[in-house]
């Protein structure tokens, strides 16, 4: 598939909640083999900030590919990168989608994962205030309450924004709330600002008049598809199927922008106008899926902020994690 075709379509994004009926977290124990090159169960997350995952889950391509091998495909909803990391750490999923900074954080804190593919280059985080707020700059957040989900790209975005404005996390009161709860707290006036995440950031912007006072695409890390190292070692052929299916899903979004908007709106419970804003303006799907230098550069910039905030113990821990984070061979060998 040509990347130019992907570029015609868009962008992508999207988020929030827990598992749906019939799609529960799998037991922590690794899935037993069904015989040879495939497990009895393949466990993946899906997330509103990862549109390709929504397409894969709806189209059931992996289910069709693996049915003959006797592999059951199970889907678990990630409410944010922090929840995807929790599922990977607990071995409740084999593949989890996060922001790149969250993947680095997990690896630096001893979660044995590898980034196997890049699913998007989003602008999915920004600093948001209420419709009637007098706050117009990050510097004005000194002494204010700011909602954020720790361990996710919006939180790391907040840290970088504060640093650029000459502030530290101690200069604000960070209220640790999951993304949807942070949005609700902002709209109720319980916090002064929110480190927001699409699509619910776009929802409060369109539906409630909330204002994005600071945007910076460079502060957003890429969308990364992460896999447990043990799974990659045992079932490389199945890992290849997953990476190939992700590329197929990205191509489907490019070829079907209208249905893709409808799918995002339906799944994340936002209006088509909000879904269209997210998919067409804030997330690029026309991105090389091979993890490499572009992502390394972004994460190397974010790493000092993670260390300063205590998310990563030492700079050396972070550097070692970054050097061992990427596993590009599956995306390099993807079906063309």
Give your account of this protein's structure.
The chain is an alpha/beta fold. Helix 6 links the parallel strand 6 and strand 7. The termini are close together. The longest helix is centred in the last third of the chain and has 20 residues, at 236-255. The chain has 15 helices and eleven strands. Helix 13 packs antiparallel against helix 14. It has helices at 3-9, 51-59, 61-66, 81-89, 100-108, 153-164, 179-188, 200-208, 229-234, 236-255, 257-268, 272-281, 293-308, 315-323, 329-332, and strands at 41-46, 72-77, 95-99, 113-122, 125-129, 145-148, 173-176, 193-197, 211-214, 223-228, 283-284. The chain is globular. It is 44% helix and 17% strand. The strands form three sheets. Strands 7-6-8-5-9 form a five-stranded mixed beta sheet, with helices on both faces. Strands 3-10-4-11 form a four-stranded antiparallel beta sheet, with helices on both faces. Strands 1-2 form a two-stranded parallel sheet.
Task: Detail the topology: elements first, then pairings.
Elements: H1 3-9, E1 41-46, H2 51-59, H3 61-66, E2 72-77, H4 81-89, E3 95-99, H5 100-108, E4 113-122, E5 125-129, E6 145-148, H6 153-164, E7 173-176, H7 179-188, E8 193-197, H8 200-208, E9 211-214, E10 223-228, H9 229-234, H10 236-255, H11 257-268, H12 272-281, E11 283-284, H13 293-308, H14 315-323, H15 329-332
Parallel strand pairs: 1-2, 6-7, 6-8
Antiparallel strand pairs: 3-10, 4-10, 4-11, 5-8, 5-9
């Amino acid at each position: 598939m040509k990347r130019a075709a992907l570029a015609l379509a868009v962008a992508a994004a999207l988020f929030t909640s827990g598992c749906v009926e019939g799609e529960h977290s799998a037991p922590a124990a690794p899935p037993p083999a069904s015989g040879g090159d495939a497990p009895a169960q393949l466990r993946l997350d899906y997330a509103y900030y990862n549109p390709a995952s929504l397409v894969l889950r709806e189209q059931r391509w992996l289910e069709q590919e693996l049915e003959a091998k006797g592999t059951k495909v199970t889907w678990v909803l990630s409410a944010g990168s922090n929840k995807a990391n929790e599922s990977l750490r607990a071995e409740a999923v084999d593949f989890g989608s996060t922001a790149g900074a969250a993947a680095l954080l997990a690896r630096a804190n001893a979660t044995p994962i590898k980034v196997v593919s890049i699913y998007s280059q989003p602008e999915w985080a920004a600093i948001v205030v209420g419709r009637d707020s007098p706050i117009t700059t990050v510097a004005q957040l000194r002494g204010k309450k700011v909602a954020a989900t720790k361990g996710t790209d919006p939180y790391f975005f907040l840290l970088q924004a504060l640093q650029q404005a000459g502030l530290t996390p101690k200069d604000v009161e960070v209220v640790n709330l999951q993304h949807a709860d942070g949005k609700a707290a902002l709209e109720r006036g319980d916090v002064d600002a929110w480190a927001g995440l699409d699509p619910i950031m776009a929802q409060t912007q369109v539906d409630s008049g909330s204002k994005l006072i600071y945007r910076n695409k460079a502060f957003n890390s890429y969308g990364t598809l992460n896999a447990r190292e043990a799974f990659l070692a045992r079932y490389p052929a199945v890992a290849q199927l997953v990476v190939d299916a992700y590329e197929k899903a990205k191509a489907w979004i490019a070829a079907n922008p209208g249905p893709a908007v409808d799918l995002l709106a339906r799944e994340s419970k936002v209006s088509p106008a909000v879904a269209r804003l997210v998919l067409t303006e804030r997330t690029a799907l026309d991105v090389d899926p091979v993890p490499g230098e572009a992502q390394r550069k972004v994460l190397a910039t974010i790493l000092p902020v993670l260390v300063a905030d205590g998310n990563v113990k030492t700079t050396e821990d972070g550097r070692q994690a970054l050097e061992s984070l990427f596993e590009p061979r599956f995306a390099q060998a993807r079906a063309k």
